[in-house]
Design goal:
Elements (H helix, E strand, L loop, with lengths): L19 H4 L17 H10 L9 H9 L15 H10 L5 E8 L11 H14 L3 E9 L18 E5 L16 H5 L14 E5 L15 E5 L7 H8 L7 E5 L15 E2 L5 E7 L9 H5 E2 L5 E7 L8 H11 L11 E6 L3 E5 L12 E6 L12 H14 L4 H5 L3 E6 L8 H5 L7 E6 L16 H8 L24 E6 L3 E6 L5
Helix pairs in contact: 4-5
Organism: Agrocybe pediades
Protein name: F-box domain-containing protein
Amino acid sequence: MAANNPTDPFPEMDLPPLPNEIVFKILLMIPIVYLNMRKHPQATLINCASSARKISQLSSGCRDYFLKTPELWAQNIEWCHPNQQWFIITLERSQPLPLDVTFKLQRGYWRGNPTLPPEMKRNFNIAQKLFSTRIRTLDMYVMGGWRDLEIQLDLPLNTLEALSFACPKSSAETTVPFRGLILDTALFPSLDKAPALPRLRSLKLTGSLVPYPNPVYQHLQTLAVFDIRHQLSVPEWLQKLSYLTQLSNLTIKGSVKQLKDSVGEIEKIRLPKLESLSLAGKVGQPGIGMETFLTHILTRRGCSLYLSGRLNLEGSEYSSITNGLTVWLGRWRVDDYRSTAMHVSLDFDRIIFHNQWGEKPWPGLNFRISFGWPTEYFHKMDNDDLLCDIISDLATETIPILQQSFNVTRQLNIWTSRGQSVIPWTDFLGRFPAVTTLTLKERRIIKSSSGPGKEQLTTKSILSALDTSRVSGNASELEPTGGVIVPNLRKVIITGRKEGVSELDYSKAM
């Protein structure tokens, strides 16, 4: 900065360390866009800056223009030339703050060039040599096919706490980054020489290959895998998870290989510290479906559950699903049921139950359980009663398993549609003795989702189920007259997509 004098528009001042929000995501950044600053520099600058949240996300052309335009300079940042020296000085100014690093490779940034730009290699080498002891989190996103990455993390990262690696499935197998190797050999050239990661506690993989179990991962507390290429069967997953005894959060979505035939006896594993389990994939095949995890992972105490199951006609053994839920929720204690809210959808194409409400942290243990048909089955709904019967039977068997949660529910939220309910509303609503507020919210449905009906899932049918005497008249004339099915009900809130919000008072009927 210039010295302080009467004509200086920016007097000298004490410059604080570079804010962490600016350091965030700059370690391995290179220019995101190449701009032609000659024609319309001001317009180009505005367009670039409007989409950039960090200084490092400005292109070199924008930074040059900043340097040549003093009135645009930031008064609390000492600008340097947008080259290697700018990169190094900016990082040095951030000391001793820990670094949260985003390493994003997207071919579109370099006009489709399949080789790694020299700027990225240079900055990566600088980062490893000068700042490897300060990297706290590392997020690596590799989009598109690359032929020549030549990047390996071969230095000790003693401060690394969280690693996220994403490589979408859209990349062809022949151009998988890191030459198609598994994650371990991609990041660490030799498993025998794998660097110690004493603080690594979180690992997230998307589209990449699953790691072999080795000492690098033995202290993991969080493991999340999404649509990995080399999918594992349930028995294979259980074998790998048996090494990760410190896990507290486990997520497996779309990463399970489906076997044609049922397997033999599967060994159970112990994850004593597990607090949250999230699963998404096919269900309904004993020993093969996602529900197998529920019966073969042993925890020390109750554990929250997210289960999104995709039904299929080939797997008709749906008793394995209810058995899994019975075992998993059977570990919950009475004190674990502290959430007093319940959200429900009972449509024929998908059933949903979850007791999460408001912002985290949610009280007690939580679950979100949903089962539904794949999109390709929707066209069958108009003329295939079998699909409706299967999901109706599954809902009928699942509901009693959740009764303990229903008993403490005070606020019940039902997503309604103009299709049919999988069970009669009188039977379902009678399971909520403590509900004081019932919210009915209409939601948009797929046009083809109008199958054969046992009972029309409409606001009118739900209100009719609440009354002890037959209700006549149109929906606008409905008045509460009984309400003994839900004895403590005080009000019903109706949210329509067109009608807006209305409220019915049931307290007078008590």
